[in-house]
Amino acid sequence: QVPLVESGGGSAQAGGSLRLSCTASRDNRFLLGWWREAPGVQRALVANIYTSGGTTWYADSVKGRFTISQDIPKNMLYLQMNNLQPNDTGMYYCATKRGIGSPWDWGQGTQVTISS
Question: Which of 65, 77, 86, 113 has the most CB atoms less than 10 A away?
Answer without folding.
Answer: 77
